[in-house]
Amino acid sequence: MESQINNIKIHMKGIEKLYGDIRAMRHDMGNHIQMIEQLMGTENSSEAFAYLGRLKGEWKELTPEIRTGNPVTEMR
Questions:
Q1: Which domain, by its residues, includes 26?
Q2: Count of domains forming the chain
């Protein structure tokens, strides 16, 4: 019983960290969207596209491509 309680506590801490990470990502995405809107609003489309290119590069670095061989679970 005590082992199960400890496992649940560990699981809950993992979930809390995941939610914190998601909140941080949502905050960052909101900031990025605001920056792109500002660049587009001032007709700096070349700067906006450059900014998007940098974001895309960072996203690719942070998002691994996972190949399992199963089309249902593939992550690209």
A1: 2-62
A2: 1
